[in-house]
Amino acid sequence: MLLENKVVLITGASRGIGRATAIEAARQGANVAINTFRDDAVAAEVVAEIEALGRKAVVFDADVAQPDSATGFVQAAVDALGRVDVFVSNAGICPFHAFLDMPVETLRRTMEVNLHGAYFMVQAAANQMVKQGDGGSIVAISSISALVGGEMQTHYTPTKAGVHSLMQSCAVALGRHGIRCNSVLPGTIATDINKDDLADPAKREYMEGRIPLGRLGRPEDIASVVAFLASDMASYMSGSALLVDGGAFANFQ
Ligand SMILES: NC(=O)C1=CN([C@@H]2O[C@H](COP(=O)(O)OP(=O)(O)OC[C@H]3O[C@@H](n4cnc5c(N)ncnc54)[C@H](O)[C@@H]3O)[C@@H](O)[C@H]2O)C=CC1
Ligand SMILES: C[C@H](O)[C@@H]1OC(=O)[C@H](O)[C@@H]1O
Q: Which domain of life is it from (predicted)?
């Protein structure tokens, strides 16, 4: 098992990639703290799945965009599970909207959840790891959208480029403490975040057609890569980005 007896914290873990990552961490032997946001019934399902795997789970309901949520989440995890070995910054939103009439509030909220939220959370986790004194692993969910644009994502793609950049700078800032920081760049993974966008059959067919492996991603495709980066198998990786997209980015023509 890759994460035996580690304590893994994950933001936005009630659904999609975060949920799959929480379950995978438990399958790999970790006790897991999940941050969720106004999703109590689903959070209870995730806890039940983790406990069914014989691992401990704790839930902390909070909006990652609020700075206090970060210290609260880390403290709750330490109180319940003793320490922080791995931190996965995953929570994110992507309210698709055109550029020319982007509402200020949509831009602001997307930045605050995706980028500021990641910053606050990673900072709180890093402070706890430094206090513990024996290193750690931080993984942030960036995106293929850190590398390429999207017509309806002008507010979103800069946050994903920012998250990858945050991991690079944190790798530099935290290396002396033995803390590794890496990002995962998923391609198009079928989750709630793009359910409406991909409900358009033409859009779905177009996106599938761009992927050499011939299918959209599943949350589990990302969770296994996060588990690898979190684990000692990746002990000399820091400041790296792993693109997990079925080959989509490589497919120019
Ligand atoms: N699905 C995709 O194609 C891709 C997703 N990503 C990224 O993966 C991450 C997870 O997205 P998905 O699992 O696809 O979406 P999802 O919508 O299934 O899950 C998002 C999770 O974040 C939580 N969340 C939303 N706002 C929050 C807040 N303010 N505070 C705390 N939690 C909050 C939601 O409750 C949910 O559990 C996001 O950062 C997204 O940008 C990156 C590349 C591709
Ligand atoms: C939400 C989108 O479908 C998804 O988000 C990303 O980061 C990917 O690039 C996809 O566009």
A: Bacteria
